[in-house]
């Protein structure tokens, strides 16, 4: 039995992790700490039973220390971050504040309570990204745990800094840490500023699908539940002080992802006549292919060309393997967004911020 504190648990991956953990570890206690920034949405946790929620900033060291003590936390899973590369280009400060200073504040709290007071077994698991490794050429070997860091965006630089701080707190103070560096995630509850939900919603509404540059930037795509499984393995069986790369093993050019998405939307409209009524502006409702919405736009500054993950370490040491390929995971994701329109409509019209008031009447 474990007592978890999950930072950023109202965001995309954190919420999926809470749902995942709740089902597989029903006896564990879970407390979410989240500042509910624009990306935090308490509706993401609806249906996850017996999950405590504290609205607080990870930089509030006193609150984190109190939680570690009072909830007898032994496992801190750290997702909270500013996570959108485009936003980091326009406003890097928030990325430094949360990803660097926020992670450091959590580490200080963990050190003070776990090493200074309780001296019990503990784990600080830090969730990070493959973007810390920079960009690969077409023929370069995939990123692994020994690839030198070379972050290129303010987002990836801030995550790289946080990875180094986590490592330093292990080597310097003896904090029991693990870190995972994962590839691009997709799945339910992803904020509709990221490629897959943004393009799905645009396709349903007949809005353009803006493609950066030549569309040939390559990413390794992983369903969020497979990421959660990888994190679970690292927490349970990973060696303290180690980092593990988590990937899907499916390298896809953005254009391939977008073509898959367009074909899947066309197929969904062909199979489900009600979609034509719900989304009359979709090309698929008007007998046109969804890919007629593709438009090319100026590339993102400093856009990394290719990310790929060599996941041999987590596979060989911990027995990790993604449960689904992109085609299967993507089909389920498309269905989830179609079946959960109120969730994304509430984000688009801003009313998701009222969710707590309408559901609990306490804010
Ligand atoms: P997200 O933006 O969807 O969610 C982030 C959550 O953190 C939100 O709920 C937000 O309210 C919360 N938060 C932000 N600043 C906070 C603060 N100062 N204090 C407390 N809470 C705060 O992000 P995500 O896509 O779910 O990513 C989660 C983690 O996984 C991040 O650390 C990210 O770097 C990492 N990651 C993401 C991906 C991906 O593809 N999305 C891939 C690899 C790693």
UniProtKB/TrEMBL annotation:
<comment type="similarity">
    <text>Belongs to the NAD(P)-dependent epimerase/dehydratase family. dTDP-glucose dehydratase subfamily.</text>
</comment>
<dbReference type="GO" id="GO:0008460">
    <property type="term" value="F:dTDP-glucose 4,6-dehydratase activity"/>
</dbReference>
<protein>
    <recommendedName>
        <fullName>dTDP-glucose 4,6-dehydratase</fullName>
        <ecNumber>4.2.1.46</ecNumber>
    </recommendedName>
</protein>
<keyword id="KW-0520">NAD</keyword>
<dbReference type="GO" id="GO:0009225">
    <property type="term" value="P:nucleotide-sugar metabolic process"/>
</dbReference>
<feature type="domain" description="NAD(P)-binding">
    <location>
        <begin position="5"/>
        <end position="330"/>
    </location>
</feature>
<dbReference type="InterPro" id="IPR036291">
    <property type="entry name" value="NAD(P)-bd_dom_sf"/>
</dbReference>
<dbReference type="InterPro" id="IPR016040">
    <property type="entry name" value="NAD(P)-bd_dom"/>
</dbReference>
<dbReference type="Pfam" id="PF16363">
    <property type="entry name" value="GDP_Man_Dehyd"/>
</dbReference>
<keyword id="KW-0456">Lyase</keyword>
<dbReference type="InterPro" id="IPR005888">
    <property type="entry name" value="dTDP_Gluc_deHydtase"/>
</dbReference>
């Amino acid at each position: 039995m474990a007592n978890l504190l999950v930072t950023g648990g109202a965001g995309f991956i954190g919420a999926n992790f809470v749902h995942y953990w709740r089902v597989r570890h029903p006896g564990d206690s879970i407390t979410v700490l989240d500042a509910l920034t624009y990306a935090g949405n308490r509706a993401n946790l609806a249906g996850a039973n017996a999950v405590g929620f504290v609205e607080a900033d990870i930089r509030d060291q006193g609150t984190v220390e109190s939680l570690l003590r009072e909830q007898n936390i032994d496992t801190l899973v750290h997702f909270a971050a500013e996570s959108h590369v485009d936003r980091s280009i326009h406003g890097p400060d928030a990325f430094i504040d949360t990803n660097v200073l926020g992670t450091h504040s959590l580490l200080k709290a963990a050190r003070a309570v776990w090493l200074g007071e309780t001296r019990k077994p503990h784990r600080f698991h830090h969730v990070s990204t493959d973007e810390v490794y920079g960009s690969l050429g077409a023929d370069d070997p995939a990123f692994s745990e020994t690839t030198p860091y070379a972050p290129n965006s303010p987002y990836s630089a801030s995550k790289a800094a946080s990875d180094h701080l986590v490592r330093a707190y292990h080597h310097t103070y003896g904090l029991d840490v693990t870190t995972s560096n994962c590839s691009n995630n997709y799945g339910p509850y992803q904020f509709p500023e990221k490629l897959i939900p943004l393009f799905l919603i645009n396709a349903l509404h007949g809005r353009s699908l803006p493609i950066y540059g030549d569309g040939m930037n390559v990413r390794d795509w992983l369903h969020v539940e497979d990421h959660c499984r990888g994190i679970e393995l690292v927490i349970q069986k990973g060696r303290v002080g180690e980092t593990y790369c988590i990937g899907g093993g499916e390298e896809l050019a953005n254009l391939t992802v977008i073509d898959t998405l367009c074909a899947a939307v066309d197929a969904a409209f062909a199979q489900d006549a009600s979609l034509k009524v719900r989304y009359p502006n979709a090309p698929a409702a008007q007998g046109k292919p969804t890919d007629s919405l593709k438009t090319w736009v100026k590339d993102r500054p400093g856009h990394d060309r290719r990310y790929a993950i060599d996941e041999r370490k987590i596979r060989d040491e911990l027995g990790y393997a993604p449960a689904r390929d992109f085609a299967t995971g993507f089909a389920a994701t498309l269905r989830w967004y179609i079946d959960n329109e109120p969730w994304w409509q509430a984000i688009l019209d801003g009313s998701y911020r009222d969710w707590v008031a309408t559901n609990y009447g306490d804010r």
